[in-house]
Design brief:
By secondary structure, this protein is α/β, with parallel strands linked by helices. The protein has one domain (2-249): TIM Barrel (Alpha-Beta Barrel). The chain contains ten helices and eight strands. The strands form two sheets. The protein has a five-stranded parallel sheet. The protein has a three-stranded parallel sheet with strand order 1-2-3. Helix 8 (196-200) links the parallel strand 7 and strand 8. Helix 6 (149-158) runs parallel beside helix 7. It starts with a strand and ends with a helix. 46% of the residues are buried.
Length: 252
């Protein structure tokens, strides 16, 4: 069983997605052998108030048991605590996602520390989107640098009881993050090497690694093939495929 912790739904102005509805996304992931997926609204990234598209995401995914919505929070928004409480009453995952680079705030800022403290009390992971696109492939008039791994490590060390899940890390970022902070987890979507998962496990413990495809920005099958091609112990495969996600996010 595969649990994908890094999936998006919605319109993105710089790419055309064939998987442009919850129904198509649900069918596609099932066809690729992905049983459950944590899904966020990519439209919430560029909209002034992410709540508008978080609510739409909840409605869009409601008919599909394999799609579990993860709300996007902007901690600069004055009402983010009330939004967080309202999501807790829905079928949203026990987690939130932030886009610090697109929403123009530092992970060292007071609003982010407030959010981390709130989530620690709820035992809810904070998912940090390191980037949406490879910086080399971004639209030339809208270059958005990735989140700094050093800032993530600093934040994680400040809140050792809080879990931080970093998605779309480059190879060296993933390795440095798990070395510098025991409460940081990374996905495999942006890590690329020959025999990727086997190579990654030389530096990253299996218990800190999560299956993530970054669908529809990337091909789901590429991430699936990283797992199927990996010659690794059964317990490590199961941990990466789904057990780590269940431990972090609860039953999915």
């Amino acid at each position: 069983m595969l649990t994908d912790i890094n999936v998006s739904l919605g319109f993105w102005p710089f790419q055309r997605f064939a998987l442009d509805s919850a129904a198509k996304l649900s069918r596609h992931l099932k066809a690729e052998g992905i049983s459950r997926a944590l899904v966020s609204s990519v439209e919430a990234v560029l909209y002034p108030d992410p709540d508008v598209y978080n609510r739409l995401l909840l409605r869009r995914t409601k008919p599909y048991r394999n799609l579990l919505p993860v709300p996007v929070i902007n901690p600069l928004h004055p009402d983010w605590r009330n939004r967080l409480r309202s999501y807790a009453a829905t079928r949203a995952a026990n987690a939130v996602k932030i886009f610090a680079n697109y929403h123009s705030y530092s992970l060292r800022s007071r609003p982010v520390r407030d959010l981390a403290e709130e989530l620690a009390g709820r035992k809810a992971p904070l998912v940090i989107q390191m980037r949406l696109e490879d910086e080399r492939n971004q639209y030339p008039r809208m270059k958005v640098p990735g989140v700094k791994a050093a800032d993530v490590a600093k934040l994680a060390s400040r809140y050792p009881a809080q879990s931080f899940v970093c998605v779309c890390c480059y190879w060296n970022e993933a390795i440095s993050l798990v070395r510098e902070a025991d409460n940081v987890y990374v996905d495999i979507s942006f890590t690329e090497r020959l025999n990727t998962v086997e190579a990654l496990l030389r530096d990253v413990p299996a218990q800190r690694l999560l299956f993530g495809s970054h669908t529809p920005f990337l091909y789901a099958r590429a991430a699936v093939m990283k797992m199927t091609a990996a010659r690794i112990a059964k317990r490590d495969r199961e941990a990466i495929a789904s057990k780590n996600a269940a431990r972090l996010f609860g039953p999915l």
